[in-house]
Amino acid sequence: MLIFLFSIVVLTIVSDQITKWLALEFLKEIETFPIIEDVLHLTYHENRGAAFGILDDNRWVFLSISTITIIGIIFYLIKYPPKSMWFGLGLAFILGGGIGNMIDRIWLGYVIDFVDFRLINFAIFNVADSFVCIGAVLVLIFVFFCSEESKKKVKGAENEEDRTDN
């Protein structure tokens, strides 16, 4: 399973870097390209902060936090290979997305964002951000609904209800 998960990490990084290269190549000059006018645009943006542009120009803080997180996830995956495919996939997505954005921060000093969902005036984001969010959701679903520990808590609560009903 580890080979599969690290393959997912590599595919995540490659897809992120290719889409960012395409954004740099084709969007930088035109700035924005509407896919669906006023709903979804491809808009070139250089993000020098964290998610949604917070904490602009604190590159070393983000690099430090990213490095610790990336090393932690790699260590965890190797030391405790996940038994659940969904949990492992979530960690692989978070790891790949984190590395994808870290590559930008190291080489460019900023992260290239380009997905501009305007219908709800959402922040401009990229493929790596999407993978991190999807990965986090998968991990949270596993922790709260699928892990043995959460099942035991639910079972314990059901048993407690049974005792109070009698």
> What string gives the helices and strands in order?
HEEHHEHH
- N-end to C-end Cα span: 46 Å
Strand arrangement across the biggest beta sheet: 1-2-3
What is the total number of structural domains? 1
| Beta strands, count | 3
Looking at the structure, what is the overall shape?
Answer: globular
Which percent band covers the strand fraction? Answer: 5-15%
Rounded to an integer in angstroms, the radius of gyration calculated over CA atoms is 19 Å
- Treating each run of at least 4 consecutive H or I residues as one helix, how many helices? 5
State the helical fraction. 55-70%
Largest sheet: 3 strands, antiparallel
Question: Low-confidence parts lasting 5 or more residues at pLDDT below 50?
Answer: none
Average pLDDT, rounded to a whole number, is 88
> Class by helix and strand content?
alpha+beta
Report on this structure.
This protein has 166 residues and is of the alpha+beta class. It has one domain. The protein is 64% helix and 12% strand. It contains 5 helices and 3 strands. Strands 1-2-3 form a 3-stranded antiparallel beta sheet. A hairpin with a 3-residue loop joins strand 1 and strand 2. Helix 1 (2-26) packs parallel to helix 3, helix 2 packs antiparallel against helix 3 (85-107) and helix 4 packs parallel to helix 5. It is globular and about 50 Å long. The termini are far apart.
